[in-house]
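Narrative of accomplishments. A recurring question from our advisory board has been how the design workflow behaves on a single, concrete structure rather than in aggregate. To address it, we present the structure tokens for one chain from the evaluation set, followed by the sequence designed for it. No filtering or post-editing was applied between the two.
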């Protein structure tokens, strides 16, 4: 296992259930964090809990190019390099085709596919300069196995998987590693606005999901975990 002590890590989506738990684990391992999130109050709480100064936080809508570029500038004012980029941001819109609107569909693509694209465009060149780094995204299990009502969500997550696999092919002459985490149901705010009968008490807990990402961050650079699947035992789709 590689040490995280002193590693420069950008954590996007630090205000979510998984992101906030992950921030604590990374900070506890001695990583130097830069945190982003959409909710200013939650971001301030997470940063305070992790001992991250406000200078290394940024309130950001991942789907907005100007926001990502501004965040990049602030990041490199505070951090000399980037070792690990972790994106836990995204939205979940689960609706049947009869109720799914064009706005729903495009919103899913903007947050779950276009946003990650903007992040990669912003930070991959710096990784390529030194030919090393780690990029972790969370397509979720619906980026591998679709379900009814997930047309927009799966479209965005399948697109994310395809994009990252294509980028991986471009990076074969470097030591830049790409990992996709396919999570099944996680008991998080994802389900708060989704009208489905689900047993959240039987889902993966946010802390356990965060521990998986924390584990991935510590893998030796001599190898790469291309993907990992983590699902609730009672709801295996793969």
């Amino acid at each position: 296992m590689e040490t995280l002590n002193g590693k420069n890590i950008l954590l996007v989506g630090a205000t979510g259930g998984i992101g906030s738990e992950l921030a604590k684990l990374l900070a506890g391992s001695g990583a130097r964090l830069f945190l982003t999130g959409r909710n200013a109050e939650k971001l301030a709480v997470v940063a305070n809990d992790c001992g991250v100064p406000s200078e290394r936080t940024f309130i950001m809508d991942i789907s907005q190019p100007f926001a990502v570029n501004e965040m990049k500038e602030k990041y490199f004012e505070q951090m000399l390099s980037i070792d690990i980029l972790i994106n836990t941001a995204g939205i979940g819109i689960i609706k049947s085709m009869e109720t799914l609107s064009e706005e729903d569909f495009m919103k899913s693509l903007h947050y779950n596919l276009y946003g990650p694209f903007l992040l990669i465009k912003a930070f991959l060149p710096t990784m390529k300069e030194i030919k090393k780094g780690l990029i972790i995204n969370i397509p979720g299990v619906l980026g591998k196995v679709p379900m009814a009502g997930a047309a927009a969500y799966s479209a965005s997550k399948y697109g994310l998987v395809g994009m990252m696999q294509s980028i991986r092919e471009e990076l074969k002459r470097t030591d830049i590693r790409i990992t996709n985490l396919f999570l099944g149901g996680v008991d998080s705010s994802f389900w708060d606005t989704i009208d489905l009968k689900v047993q959240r008490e039987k889902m993966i807990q946010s802390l356990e999901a965060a521990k998986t990402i924390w584990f991935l961050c510590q893998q030796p650079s001599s190898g790469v975990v291309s993907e990992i699947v983590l699902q609730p035992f009672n709801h295996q789709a793969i």
